[in-house]
Design goal:
The chain is an all-alpha fold. Among the domains are: 66 residues, Arc Repressor Mutant, subunit A; 79 residues. It contains eleven helices and no strands. The protein is elongated, with a radius of gyration of 35 Å.
Length: 220
Amino acid sequence: MILPLTVETLNSLTKTELEVVHFINSNEARLSQLSIVDIAYETFSSPATVSRAIRKCKINGFNELRYKLAARDLNKQVVDVNEILNKSLVEAHRTIEQISMADVLRCIQMIQEARRVYVFARGLTHYIADEFCLKLQLMNVDGTVIKVLSFLPISSYSTMFARVAMGSVAAWEIVVSFLILVLSIIGTGVLGAKLYRMGTLRYGNPIKIGTALKDMRKSD
């Protein structure tokens, strides 16, 4: 019952206003889809009568009534979400309690001793698989692939930080990675400026990579 009826409220309502209140309390599910004109039409009254009946129930107009109904539905949704989260938390705790630390340590040892690890995923679990693959790669911070990635400009900004945080990196490696990154930025800027200049001179004609390289050689 969205409009509470007390003895004082009942004594202050007219017969028509009481029918309006009963209609609103009986159609809470439809109330969000109805306007004050619709309620007046359904109860054979006027919008002024509907508004007056709502105000006598200690609610400041029809808009506040709809807001109260929406807020109650929102609170119900929040409660449902909290129940789902609590159930998920309980299931996670049960799963953790069933895991044997001996089995976990044995799995870690097998992964460390394996020459190659295959990770299979399906559907949304591929996000977990991607993160797991990243963790496996970071376990071998001194591996060849990680070392090469730490010098490539496209990946050095993150891979080198991971190597520094998780392993021992020589000072010269950090300096070389930084210089390569700075030189690549400068080179990209110069190349972009030349391509932009060629594009403005050849307005309307697409520039092919081979033609652009030939023109840059000639200009040099």
